[in-house]
Amino acid sequence: MLVSQLLLWTAVIVEGLLIAALARQIGILHERIAPAGALTLHQKVTVGEVATPMTVVTIDGVPLEVGGKRDGRSQLLFFASPDCPVCKSLLPVVRSAAKAEGNWLDVVIAGDGTQPAYRKLASEHGLGDLPLVLSEALGRAFGVSKLPYAVLLDEEGRVASLGLVNSREHLESLFAAKEHGVASIQDFLARRQKEA
Asked: Are residues 99 and 145 in the same domain?
């Protein structure tokens, strides 16, 4: 009986040490995993480049200037499609960001489909207060090849950050990249690792 008790206590102690070692390894892995940011694809424009100003027309017939100096305001171009389920799932996030960051950010929804489809999209997702632009030229100018895609232009009309956005975190990473003056969150982490 005494021997079995000693063996059981030994097993409990060994198990406790193994759990502590695993917890330590999980902590190390957690520190090494970088936050996910918007995926920057091979694009026509690069971060820091001044975007060529374009005048486009919203689906309501209102002219809208994209790019150029903007009196202390940044501009987020969110490229979406009515046929894209991920785009649809992110539209409430984009609408929320437009309201929360409204003191420094103007949001534009962009696409290149038909007006009826985009009007229906705007109606279903409560986008009436956001300008909606249908312009294939705008998408080509920023090298948009996959959706949903976002481009953040700073107050001077420079590309502050851009990339494929599949989640709220990806969209917020564009704002964080602009705030830190880097191309992407991955770029920021790579620079920080080199400095360390």
From this structure: yes
Q: pTM (2 decimals)?
A: 0.77
Q: What is the pLDDT of residue 32?
A: 60
Task: Check whether residue 20 and residue 106 sit in a common domain.
Answer: no
62 lies in the same domain as 17: no
Q: Can you give the C-alpha Rg of the chain in angstroms?
A: 23
Q: How confident is the model at residue 29 (pLDDT cuts 50, 70, 90)?
A: confident
For the chain, how many structural domains are there in total?
2
Would you list the DSSP string of 1-62? -HHHHHHHHHHHHHHHHHHHHHHHHHHHHHHHSPPP-PBPPS-SS-TTPBPPPEEEEBTTS-
For residue 190, the enclosing domain spans 54-195
